[in-house]
Each structure stands twice: as structure tokens, then as C-alpha cells.
Amino acid sequence: MKSLNRILPLSLLIASAVCGIAHAEQYDFTMHGYMRSGILATSDGNRADSLGLMPDGKFRLGNEDDTKIELIPQVTLKSDSGVVAKIQTNITHQTKCTSDWNCLDDDGKAVQFREGYVELSNLDFAPDVAFWAGKRYSSSNASSHQFDWEYIQYNGTGGGFDNLDIGFARFDAGIYAFTTTDESKAYPVDKGDQGYPDDYSLNLWFKKIADSPVDLELIAHHMNNNENHIGAAEKGYGVTGIYNFEGFYGLTGGSSKFVAQYGRGLAAGDSLGKNGWGWANLDDTQSWRLVLDGVATIGDGWEVATFAFYQKDKNYRWWSSDNEGWGRSSWVAGVRPYQQITKNFAMQYEIGYEYLDDKNYKGVDGKGKGGLTKVTIAPTLTFDSGFWSRPQIRVFATYAKWDKGVSDALDGNYDWSTNTIGSGGYSRSGKTDTLNFGIQGEVWF
Questions:
Q1: pTM for this predicted structure
Q2: Residue 191 — φ and ψ, nearest 5°?
Q3: pLDDT digits (tens, 9 = 90+) for 149-160
Q4: Interval 39-94: pLDDT, tens
Q5: Three-state secondary structure of 161-194
Q6: Measured in whole angstroms, how far is the alpha carbon of residue 286 from the centre of its chain?
Q7: What mean pLDDT comes out for the span 162-172?
Q8: How far is it, in rounded angstroms, from Cα 387 to Cα 364?
Q9: What pLDDT score does 118 carry?
């Protein structure tokens, strides 16, 4: 019965769309999706967590221990007048439900509807503008596949429009409400207030300003305070600038971008470039970030992915009740060469470094300063040629070494339920390195 309850909403969506065919000149149904799954183990045969020092993201090659499945059914209707309607959902399962915002089951592993929205375009009064409402990912989200991290991520329930021509730029605007389940259960400070401490984000994008490769985003957040974080910020604002290079920084073929971000209040710290994560931020929490993200096409079967960022935080604090914040800085840099040897066999290599300097880190002996180096080699079976070709089946070996001062920061060691850092599997033995092995399949379509 539980499985039936999960499938029924999708069936009703499809049935509703089919019933509308009589009113549409054209009807189309497509299914897209993503999947990754595999096993990660240490050299002694024990299952292992992924490795990373950052709150979000990690160099992912040979470093993923979870299963994630996304199915994205999409119905497109076109009326005889030319109006186009797109109805889309995103049905997701992930063994670590850490980034979703409606993980309702106690085990956090159920199927989730992370999108469910409608988009209308080619309307008679605005033929080039796409209007949307519902629950969706922003069309302007930006991520590094190599680091498995969206450094621009605005998801939620709301509405807006994309691609409005305002003369000097193309303009997108949207409002999003984003609240994770555990926080939405918190009572407002004033028990007379109605509702819960929802986070609202206004997102304004100016793209290809003056026909240049420059995009500019302005963001504003608001959220009522709650008794879990007395004195936390109730508002925030941020700005993101993007320069989209021609090819790989103008040097060779491929793609690349430079990103500069600033946030204050709710838009700072772990919420920089995102919405919904700033519950413990202070009014004067500030963050700055620089990002370099690109893939170079070199030739002779070689492509190289690169990713780096530097972030500086002022008056930062954990999701805690500390009265004052502290300083934190972090940076990462990594390169993933990809060599297509035959049409269906490739070699992938990755070297990544992460560095954390947290002035009030609750780690080994109160220290929180040091780095992590990770090196991976991954023979890969490919469906077709190229870095982005999927499906892929990879076997891999990874060697990682870290400084003792950040041992307890390794991914999987922070207990969000108690806001404490414990001793994870990697640091329990006192070692500061590991040799991991695994196999993984990855698909998108």
C-alpha cells in the first residue's frame, strides 16, 4: 500500500494531462532522469563514508557511497493558438536525504516530489517569456559536477518568469519559499503569530548584460525568527556576478565561468548562493566567495575538468545558539583529466585538495585547521565517447590523506540532530589516511 501511495500521484498527473489532450493541438510526454549507485569500501573491507571537509560538496570521483535516483516526467501541451504548457515533476530517492526540503519519513529515505510545477510560454502578450508557478529548481542554478555541489541553488515553492527582454539584458524573477521539515515544525517566538518560520527568497537575474558574457543576480531573504535560534537573522541579501568565458578561459575548447558572490545575514555562511539554510546566521554574518569552474577540450581523446573556490566568512556560526560568530575560511582546488582510449573505454584521474580554517571548530583538541588531499584512478566503461557521455560504469581506487586537526570534520562525522561533532569511522583508529575501493554506475538521460 505504501508503494501504491507513492505511485498514485504520478499516475494522476499523467492521467490529468492526457484528459487535456482534447483541448490541445499537440501533446508530448517525455521522461528524463538521473541515477548513481555503487559501493565504497576501505582496504580492510569495511563500508566507508565519502570524504570531504566542506559543509556542502566533495570531489566525487571514487568518493560517493549513496544511491540517488531522479525521474523527471514532463508533459508538453501546445494549443491551436500556439501557447505552450509544460507540466513537470521530479521524483527523487536518495539514501542520504540531506539536501531535500520535504524528507517526511523518519528514515529520510522515502521517495520525494522535489518538483511539481507548470510553465506557460508563447502567450499572446509576451511570446518570449516563460511564466511558472509551483515547486521547482531555479532555471539559473549552477553546479560543479566534479565537486558535486551547487554553488547557486534556489529551489522551492513559488512563482515567477524567465527571459523577459528589458533592453539591456534578459531578466528572470522569482520568489521561492524553502523550509526543511524539522525547521517547519518549530514554533514562532511569538506564539500569537500564525504559521511557521518559512524562508522567502526573492531572486532577480539580469543575463547577458549589454550583450556581454556577464550575468548579475540579486537575492533577498526573509524569515521569522524561532525559538530554536533566538537572536538569529531574520533577513539577508546577496549578490552574484558571473562571467561566462568563450571556451576554456579563452585558451582552448570547452566551457568555463568565473563567479563572485557576497552575502549578509540569511544569505551568508552555508546559505551563500542558496536559500533555506541560514537559520543560525547573525545579522552581521558576512561571506565572500570566488569560484572557477570549467571543462577543457584538449584533443586526442583528452578532456580536463577543473574546479576551485575560496570562501571567507565573518561572524559565522554553526546551526547553534552561540551568542557570537567567529571567522572561517576555506578553499578547494582540483583537476580531473579524462582520457577516451577507445569509444567505449576511458581512464579518469582526479586530484583534489580541500582546506579548512575554522576559528571555533569543535574538532580534535579544539583545532579546526588543516587540509585533505584525495587522489583517484577510475577505469571507466562508456556508452559513447566524451567526458559528459552517460551511462558510465566505473571501478576506482582512491587514496586520501588529511591533517589531524580536521579529522573530525570528515564527511559523515557531524550529528545534525545534536549539533555535535563525533568520531567517525575514519578518525576512530587515529589514522590520517585511507585507501578506498569501489564500483559505481552513473546515468542521465
A1: 0.88
A2: -65, -15
A3: 999 998 888 999
A4: 999 988 888 889 998 878 999 999 998 899 999 999 999 999 999 999 999 998 88
A5: EEEEECCCCEEEEEEEEECCHHHHCCCECCCCCC
A6: 21
A7: 97
A8: 39
A9: 98
Q: Are strands 149-152 and 155-165 parallel, antiparallel or unpaired?
A: unpaired
Residue 177 has pLDDT above 80, yes or no: yes
| Residue 287 predicted with pLDDT over 90 | yes
**Is pLDDT larger for residue 429 or for residue 143?**
143
Cell of 406: 580536521
pLDDT at 332: 98
Q: Which of 140, 97, 151, 90 is nearest to 117 (CA)?
A: 90
Do residues 263 and 286 make contact, with C-beta atoms less than 8 angstroms apart? yes
Q: Are 263 and 305 in contact (CB under 8 A)?
A: no
- The Cα–Cα gap between 31 and 148 comes to 23
Residue 8 host element (H or E): helix 2-19
Bond prior to 391 in cis (omega within 30° of 0): yes
Q: Look at residues 138, 131, 118 and name the one whose alpha carbon lies nearest to residue 17.
A: 118
Instruction: Average the pLDDT over 122-139 and give the result.
Output: 95
User: Which cell goes with 306?
Assistant: 577543473
The number of residues making up the chain comes to 445
Handedness of CA 278, 288, 144, 56 (dihedral sign): negative
**Reported confidence tier of residue 364, pLDDT bands at 50, 70, 90:** low
Residues 6+ apart with CB under 8 A from 218: 203, 204, 237, 238, 239
Q: Are 410 and 428 in contact (CB under 8 A)?
A: no
CA distances from 445 to 70, 138, 392 (A): 10, 20, 12
The torsion angle over the Cα atoms of residues 93, 99, 102 and 105, rounded to 10 degrees, is: 60
Give the fold, CATH level 3, of 2-444: Maltoporin; Chain A (2.40.170)
What Rg, from alpha-carbon coordinates, does the chain have?
23
Domain spans in the chain, listed from the N-terminal domain onward:
2-444
Number of CB atoms found within 10 A of residue 319's CB: 18
Q: What is the mean pLDDT of the chain?
A: 85
Cell numbers at 305, concatenated: 575538468
